[in-house]
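Late entry, written up from scratch paper. The run itself happened at the end of the previous shift, but nothing got recorded in the book at the time, so transcribing now.
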Amino acid sequence: MTPSDADATARVRAFWEAEACGERYGADQDRIRYQLEPEILAFADFPSAAGKRVLEVGVGMGADFVRLARVADSATGVDLTERALAITRGRLADAGLEADVRQADAERLPFGDASFDLVYSWGVLHHSPEPERAMTEAVRVLAPGGTLRLMLYHRRSWVALAAWARFGLLRGKPGLSLGQAVAMVESPGTRAFTPAEVRAALGDRLASLSVRPVLTHWDRRVAPGVAGLSGDRFGWFLLVEGRKAHGPGEPG
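Output as recorded:
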């Protein structure tokens, strides 16, 4: 890791150490999470983790991880921050569950190749300084035939356009790109992708790759009335799912 990489990671860690994602909702975080982002439940398909070795990259406050841990044969969760790990461990204890929860950088996962049958991450990898490296790591630790499920931010979305209006247009910087505007959303350097960019990063590593945008509560919030007219095309979330091929010439 170069000094600049380390500095970027440190800035992201400091941002989320100050407040875990969703922590402001307090005891209602679990309920509000799925109310605001109902897309999680269908996409994550928690029951499908039954009997599998599961890794969640970026456990946050543990809402999804507890659900995975209830059904998985083994559940492992990593996060960049100690704050998130402490909250998640508390939730596991309250639920009477045991799991491997540890601090780790998504770009340098401390696991061997082909360690997991399912790798899941919701809204995390785009906060990494090098998301493409984090995606590569997620595939590396995935076993042949295993499933990858990621949610990444979509650059050509209503939310990204609202960020451009806020950080570019209203500040006299109309030349600001959508990518530069998104970098000012949430933690420093947040990235957003197009489906083509995700396919370029993962297409030669995964079989049956699906990358699709979905319209969200956040799009409707920043562009009320208008956002729904285009359907999912300009949604803030990119849902990424694929299976790791078994080997050359073998079906995925």
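Strands lie at 53-57, 74-79, 100-103, 116-122, 142-153, 206-214, 237-244.
(Scratch paper discarded after transcription.)
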